[in-house]
User: What shape does this take?
Amino acid sequence: MKIRTIVSSLLLIILFSGCKESKTEDTTKANYLDYSKSDDQATGGIKMIPITTPIGKFNVWTKRVGNNPKIKVLLLHGGPGGTHEFFESFDGYFPNESIEYIYYDQLGSYYSDQPTDNSLWTIDRFVDEVEQVRKALKLDNSNFYLMGQSWGGILAMEYALKYQKNLKGLVIANMMASAPAYNKYAEDVLGPMLPKEVFAQIKEFEAKKDYTNPKYMELLYKYYYSEHILRKPVEQWPESINRAFKHLNPDVYVFMQGPSEFGITGDATLKDWDITSKLKTLTIPTLVIGAKYDTMDPKHMEWISKEVQNGRFLYCPNGSHCSQYDDQEHYFPGVISFLKDVDSGNFKKS
Assistant: This one.
């Protein structure tokens, strides 16, 4: 009799705890698109956030999609000098899962202020900017997930190294932890995968620093971009990607990344960047995304997931640098599972 009572009590606890969780999910879903109590209702979630820099104050553009008090994902776009438009495919997946996400154009990008002082384009200054944006949006370690892709991955890692106490989770997409390692992968692996005569022509253009030559760009788009940036014929690329490339700020991009697409070279300020020795200090749940055809070495990405203390690796077997477009069947389920596992307390590292 006593055993039966204990079993019945346990069943009731499980039943009602499940109901409570379901009720919370239902409430979140019901309120997901309710902006009526928010200060950005009139602008559809858009906020221009003032930030302070060493040379003065500027404004950066953000746009919130949805409401979820427990999961808020701040998106850090690539480039440098890119835009939030690289992430617009998220609209097809995150809302149905009631995930709140925030588009954000970093300073110098198309929808934000675009000062021309190169002293602004440093990692430390960008990290400080992200922290100012976090405070303005009232994000904290009960709900704040930072997701960076490409250059945004560099920025996300650097932010986490300084401010991981503010984070609930971190997502590093399509970015290695070392510029020299990336350069070696591009030179030793990606370049030789091209037809020999094509790679020779590309290297000839680069040796002459003839980066604006239409033939150079034609070769890149036909043989490199459509294989390693987004695996579709260029004429079939999504409109949002074309718009993002159109809006790229070349001054910021070249200053930090350099003019070549085969690594970070020349006088680019990121060319010696390397944080591989610091990764082990990251303790927060971390998802690292790598793809088979990426410009970044997927094996290095998997290594990052093991080097941090609580990492998980997501492999996109059909994806390239923009796996959020060309391998959505693996990319989005993996990202969504990570966010929900961390939120529910069920996160397990790889």
Q: What stands out?
A: The first helix runs from residue 2 to 31.
